[in-house]
Amino acid sequence: MTGKTATCLGGRDLRALFNAARFLVGATAPTQLPPDVGYEVAFAGRSNAGKSSALNRLCDRRGLARISKQPGRTQQINLFALDAPATRRLVDLPGYGFAKVPHQQRRRWEQLVGHYLMDRSSLRGLVLVMDIRHPLRERDWMLLDWVQGRALPVHCLLTKADKLKRGARQRAVQEVREAVASHAATTQVFSATEGTGVQVLREQVAGWLDWP
User: Fold this and answer.
1) Distance (Å, whole) CA 2 – CA 122
2) Among the listed residues 16, 108, 19, 23, the one whose alpha carbon sits nearest the alpha carbon of residue 66
3) How do residues 181-200 score in pLDDT, each as one tens digit?
4) HSE-CB of 199 using CA atoms within 13 angstroms
5) Residue 159: pLDDT band with limits 50, 70, 90
């Protein structure tokens, strides 16, 4: 997309649409999730991959999703409403990987996330957030294989692109694209610091949310 269509959807500014995001609920059990109607796009990834930073930059709202210096601190599913009736929502899933938490607690998180990913009818797409310097680790592949079973669209977001030079960025993107081709996933570079790829991400998520 170029020109006017690159910043608008149906004549509306995408930034303004996402900027309206507000915290809805933090769920630690499936029963605490809002009614399973409307449209949701979930963000998942390893701890410290830049998930919260990506959400904040997407919505141009500093502090919307809390950023912790201690990886793995997000212990619940956080949902953000994008419209007044809360029929379109962004979902911040707990990070996986090297969280320093008891095994029993980690297992409880995994069950919560697994239930959400497999059973949530309003879930229309998954943004898989990965540090561009360390993509497609074992648990990333596990997640990709898992959601492939329910034919859920996946968009691989390679964050912290500002940490690499242009040539290295391009090589990393190409390698990931080729690797996930069998999963029909799309891929892009992203930098919350520089703003690289923000508009591409907005267009991808807005399409899944079926904004009129």
Assistant:
1) 30
2) 23
3) 999 999 999 999 999 999 99
4) 10
5) very high
First to last CA, the chain: 18
* Tokens linked to 68: 């912790």
Task: Specify whether the CB–CB gap between 143 and 44 falls below 8 A.
Answer: yes
Q: Where are the beta strands (DSSP E) in the chain?
A: 8-9, 12-13, 22-27, 39-45, 77-81, 88-92, 123-131, 154-159, 186-189
* R_g over Cα of the chain: 16
Helix, strand, or coil here: 67? coil
Dihedral angle over CA of 59, 150, 155, 11, nearest 10: -50
Provide the number of structural domains found in the chain.
1
Whether the pTM exceeds 0.70: the reply is yes
Run of H or E residues at 143 = helix 138-148
Burial (CB count <10 Å: 0-12, 13-18, 19+), residue 62: exposed
Contact 123, 152 (CB under 8 A): yes
CATH, residue 77: 3.40.50.300
Pairing label, strands 12-13, 8-9:
antiparallel
Residue type at position 167: G
3-class DSSP state of 62: coil
What is the mean predicted confidence (pLDDT) over 148-162?
96
Q: Which domain holds residue 174?
A: 3-208
